[in-house]
Amino acid sequence: MSKLRDNPAKEVPRRVLVLAPIVTLLILGATFIFDFNFLLVGGFFWLGVICNLICFWLIVKGSALMIKKEEAGEKASIMPNTILRYAVYGIMLLIAIQFGTQAFIGGIIGILMVKVAITTDGMFF
Predict the structure, then answer these.
(1) What's the pLDDT at 1?
(2) What is the overall mean pLDDT for the chain?
(3) Contact (CB, 8 A) for 28 and 39
(4) Of 53, 54, 51, 29, which Cα lies nearest the Cα of 41?
(5) How many whole angstroms separate alpha carbon 88 and alpha carbon 82?
(6) What average pLDDT does this structure show over 85-107?
(7) Contact criterion met (CB below 8 Å) for 43 and 102
(8) Which of 8, 31, 107, 125 could covalently link to 96 via disulfide, CB atoms 3.0 to 4.6 Å apart?
(9) Do residues 110 and 46 lie in contact, with contact meaning Cβ atoms separated by under 8 Å?
(10) 104 within 8 A of 41, measured Cβ to Cβ
(11) 12: closest CA among 49, 43, 37?
């Protein structure tokens, strides 16, 4: 059984931080092939990774709070948490698009790193 199923709140960020340097090397290679600015693409990639880890943390904390409220018989909603996460993503992407398409591409790749870490469960770890 994978560690991801045992404790996803701790395992997913660890996997993201293991996979991110590998993706950084792939981005480095792609920037040479496509003649992109590595500092721009790589910088916004890491900004996307940081935003994605913050939003993953918000999912974990928000879900735990919602379950706690439901068990206590109180009204619980995940909507404020969802709006906050989308705001974080939106602000990051708005900043990235101000720097151009290359920064936007790097930011999108960074935002997808938690999905990559979860999807590759069992492939590398």
Answers:
(1) 45
(2) 90
(3) no
(4) 29
(5) 10
(6) 96
(7) no
(8) 107
(9) yes
(10) no
(11) 49
pLDDT in tens, 43-67: 999 999 999 999 999 999 998 888 8
In DSSP notation, the chain reads: --HHHH-HHHHHHHHHHHHHHHHHHHHHHHHHHHT--HHHHHHHHHHHHHHHHHHHHHHHHHHHHHHHHHHTT----SHHHHHHHHHHHHHHHHHHHHT-HHHHHHHHHHHTHHHHHHHTTTT--
d(CA 41, CA 13): 21
Kindly state the tokens that stand for 18.
Answer: 């293991």
Structure tokens given for 108: 């999108």
Task: Please state at what angle helix 8-34 crosses helix 101-111, rounded to 10 degrees.
Answer: 150
Total-model pTM: 0.87
Question: Residue written as tokens 């492939």?
Answer: 123
CA separation, residue 113 to residues 20, 28, 33, 95 (Å): 7, 16, 22, 19
Cα atoms in the Cβ-side hemisphere of radius 13 Å centred on 99: 19
